[in-house]
Amino acid sequence: MMPVLLHIGPFTLGSYAVALGLAFLLGGWVLGRELERRGLEAERAGPMTLLAALAGVGGATLLALLEDWLAGRADVTTLLRQVLG
What's the half-sphere exposure (Cβ side, CA atoms, 13 Å) at 80? Predict the structure, then answer.
């Protein structure tokens, strides 16, 4: 698998980001179908999927930064630089 799929100026699109996006899209579609099958509002699948994506990616990022800090591999300024770009 190619690590970088597209590179335009400062924007780089990686294969992991594409795979993650496709996984959330497919998960949202399956959730919508399941909600509809159970007689619930299928329109809620979009916001639920977006919330799950943000919480999952954000939580994983925070955990990785916390582990780096606790292991002594990074100080606070390095962590802030990683988060803020």
Answer: 3
